[in-house]
User: What shape does this take?
Amino acid sequence: MTSLQSLAASGTKLWLDSVDPDLIKSNREQGATGATSNPIIISDLLKTGRFDADMKTFFAAGHDDEAVAWAMTNQLVKNAQDVFTGVWANTKGDDGWVSFELDPLLEDKAQTRNTEQRSAEYIRLGKKWSAGHTNRMIKVPATPGGLGAIEELVAAGVAVNITLIFSERQYILARDAVYRAVQRRTDKQNVKTVYSIFVSRVDVYTETHVANLSAAAQGLVGIVNAKRIWKMNKDFWANKGLARNQEMIFASTGTKKMKDGGTPPAWKYVEALAGSDIETNPPKTNEDVQKSGRMFTKQVDQLPPADVLADIDAKVDMKKLEETLMSEGLAKFADPHKELLALITKKRTELK
Assistant: This one.
């Protein structure tokens, strides 16, 4: 058994944080059962030149840069969906999904729409980009505008991935919106939602902003936060009678360089959250995990000692953490889409 196979055997659904056709194929062979996309992923793929012919076709058809960005996203996500269709069918829609992120510019600082208008646009776009797709999941951020769209999207039959979750507060708002929608659905057997909780970004935050944490607690806040929300989610949906699992996605699982110059082992978050729900790991993380030779067992239900938890609870202001990380997250959310559009403008000139 390989390391990634042991991760899957522990109970984790492994979704690749990429829609690169080559990586989708190789990771599927290693046990991946789904994938996610975002503008950074699409942009990095278009930079390679491997999809120039596709872009030339869209240019020739008269598409503007925005339309080309979405046409390429749609194509790459659809190609990934095709690889996982069998998983989706075999699990009766519980797995085998590929996430499609809606327009990040809805959260841009220059955006003039109010919250209600943003919600309405998320609803419109979610219905548009999910139409006709069996195993496409629509990504909506846990912002006021995004949260305001969730109930209507789920009620309309859309599978939703609520992303940019950093706190219990955001999770509860998203989950309760889904539950309201569930009660409106006549096809409850088809409801599928996931909640993307970001992990490593939390530990980067505490290293800078909560430097007085004990050595035992520093670097564990992201894991503790994710595990607590995982438990809340597990308990909430346990008796709701739905055929499909409403799950957590553990996102931001790649390790990041710390202030002292060191980098935690690639498997730090992968191992700590193994055993249930979904991990969306970057390709490099999966590669490093596979090379590690480690065998993974269920750890997601194991919390650190009581004194570590007490230190975290006493010193980490979760409201401030959420506000800071959401502000940073929205910049990382919108800016890559602007860069994707700039890349397509450049490609249009180069490919004439």
